[in-house]
Amino acid sequence: MLFSPEDIGAIWLTLKLASLVTLLLILISTPIAWWLARTQSWLKGPINAIVAMPLVLPPTVLGFYLLLFLGPQGALGQFLNQLGFSPLPFSFAGLVVASMVYSLPFVVQPIQNAFSAIGEGPLEAAATLRASPWDRFIHVVIPLAKPGYISAAVLGFAHTVGEFGVVLMIGGNIPDETRVISVQIYDHVEALEYDQAHSLSLLMISFAFLVLAFLYSVQRRQKNSAMSGGLL
Amino acid sequence: MTTHSISKALHVRIEQQRKGTSDFLLDVDLQIPNTGVTALFGPSGSGKTTLLRCIAGLEKKTKGLVRLNDDTWQNHQTFLAPHLRPIGYVFQDANLFPHLTAQENLQFSIKRADKHQSVISYADVIQLMGIESVLSQYPAQLSGGERQRVAIARALLIQPKLLLMDEPLSALDDALKQDILPYLEQLCHRANIPIIYVSHSLDEVIRLADYMIVLEKGNVIEEGEIQTLLGKLGTTFSKYQDASVVITGTVSQQEEKWGLSWLCFSDQTIAFKKGKEQLGSTLRLRIQSKDVSLSLSEHSDSSILNRLTVTIDDMISDPKDPSMIMVRLLAGSTPILARITTLSAHKLSLQKGQTVIAQIKSVAVLS
What we know:
Number of domains of chain A: 1
Order of helices and strands of chain B: EEEHEEEHHHEHEHEEHEEEEEEEEHEE
CATH superfamily of the largest domain in chain B: P-loop containing nucleotide triphosphate hydrolases
Largest sheet of chain B: 6 strands, mixed
Number of strands of chain A: 0
Number of helices of chain A: 11
Number of helices of chain B: 8
Shape of chain A: globular
CATH architecture of chain A: Orthogonal Bundle
Shape of chain B: globular
Distance between the termini of chain B: 22 Å
Helix content of chain A: over 70%
Number of strands of chain B: 20
CATH class of chain A: Mainly Alpha
Number of domains of chain B: 2
CATH topology of the largest domain in chain B: Rossmann fold
Oligomer: heterodimer
Order of helices and strands of chain A: HHHHHHHHHHH
């Protein structure tokens, strides 16, 4: 058996986490990216910086402050506690929230770039063709930003799969709740189970390769199609 | 003067200030006819495109008034968003949706069109613009001229009450311009809605427009019916070396043997190369001032066919080129401009009110 039941549990949990985080991030990143791509406000710089922070901060720093913020004594923790929710740290829900913060720039930035690249032209044309702002967004912006969305989803998913520091700080190591692949690999190595560590690590390497290969081929096809006129 | 009254329908009063200063980018108060083609003419930077965008509602930071007939689109308290204005807009660079084929671009418009208004049918617009064969292609696969024709079709299929065109030919090279102009001429004659056409090319304006508004530095400096305006001395156009007048008349005679037709206007006739025009139809001819020469007596031994008896209405010397003088002639009530040398004018001792013979070397059929 290549993977133990615990390994399979970790793989399954990782996929569940990454899918949920990607879906939620696409939803909340769309308005953020739209605002960032269109605004003339002085707030653009600071907000851009905040969104990009997870790119440069050590995951342990993020995890540490999220732990304090979400914990029973933290601002959000207390608020959620009053509403009757159980505390987020060391739970799957807490891991989802933390992963969303951690992967936010990887989803916002490709969508933001795609929105900026569209420019005013197609939007103005659609406006003179009686398309309301919402209609323009659904039928012009989203289709034109499709490559950006594909990049965003792939990067957000892959980045969530690869996280370790944040998970360890806020999620701990609870089987089927917070023990994702990267934590499982760490446990195997600690326990000197190098064979199992190899299996999972090679799985991660192949995954990373496939994801990046897909992404670059999408980008290449996009460049070609810009000349031939087709979509993707 | 051939002024028939024009019903004025679009009222535009716009003020737009340059950010943080008191100088105006645009300061106009206009009544634009609700029939035919009105040209907004001027050099680049004169504010003509901005004015068009204000009418469309694409410029948000403007003060003023925009009314079409009884509908107010903009005043001090309302600002109707562009998608609520019954307009069609043709952009300088076509602006087709790159993710849709030509046909899907047209469908985008048809789906959102005004169901109560019928300007043109799908079949008619395809035929008028000659785009049948390119419908399945994406904008990036089309030539510049094809893209612009699809864009015009798309703007018409929204069934607008007013068509706005922003230099639709300026992005095309000369050969393509000559390809697309006939389509535009067709459109301008067939459309039963008012068209506002922005251009910096006098040639296009003369071919397409009925009414003309000249902008300079955000202000209106001339406005009027094109024939009247072109025939005036001292207007912007008479300074041009290719200053021209436009003559409208009816085809009164045709001779297959010589391949010629005659146009009758203000009790005069003028011969031109016979084309597809029909006897009795209305036609516009362009006469360039450099093709008109003057003589004091009728030379029947000249090879020049068109010799009109005219009176000198006015003369003005070219401020840039003192060797040349522009003479405004009246053939009946129709103005004609002649650009001749100052020396000739002196030798012939031309004077206002004098009757002379205008010899016209060539005329061009406009439509």
